[in-house]
Design a protein that fits this description.
44% helix, Rossmann fold, 4 strands, 7 helices
Length: 160
């Protein structure tokens, strides 16, 4: 789940963003994740409550599946100009296995390396009327919010 949070937390996406913006990610693993903006999840809950014929139904809330390399390029396009550094080197599964001996976060992603999971979000679009926020906006809004909250160093120019 991406997008601006109300408070600083150690969610998986928050940790990912923190590691990216603090240059604590030396390389990019071959990972792809389904993503959804937190604001879309909130809207879906309200819509499911308000719309008829949604009782008892479950919806997959996902904007799309995106590779980390693509997501990092989106963030780099917005934040590199402020001095944030982004990894460019790909990291293979062999190196990740070694790192996983010392890093539980890396260990938790090992089963997902090299896999791409696809989702069908049509019911949420057609029945709930969700118009998903794009991953680029979700990532950038999330990063700015984390910078504003002090979760990561603020390298942005001072406002006048």
């Amino acid at each position: 789940m991406l997008g601006p949070a109300f408070y600083d937390n150690d969610s998986t996406s928050g940790l990912f963003m923190r590691r990216v913006l603090t240059a604590d990610m030396p390389g990019i693993p071959d990972l792809a994740f389904g993503s959804v903006d937190v604001r879309d999840v909130a809207a879906a809950h309200i819509l499911a409550f308000e719309k008829p014929n949604t009782d008892g139904k479950r919806y997959i809330l996902v904007e799309g599946t995106h590779h980390w390399k693509v997501m990092l390029k989106m963030l780099e396009g917005e934040f590199a100009k402020y001095g944030y550094k982004f990894p460019s080197m790909s990291v293979g599964s062999f190196l990740l296995r070694i790192v996983s001996w010392f890093d539980s976060e890396v260990k938790s992603i090992l089963p997902l390396v090299g896999r791409e999971i696809r989702f069908d979000n049509k019911p949420s679009i057609e029945e709930l009327g969700i118009n998903y926020i794009g991953v680029n906006k979700s990532l950038i809004d999330m990063a700015y919010k984390m910078i504003k909250m002090g979760s990561v160093p603020n390298k942005l120019p001072k406002e006048k």
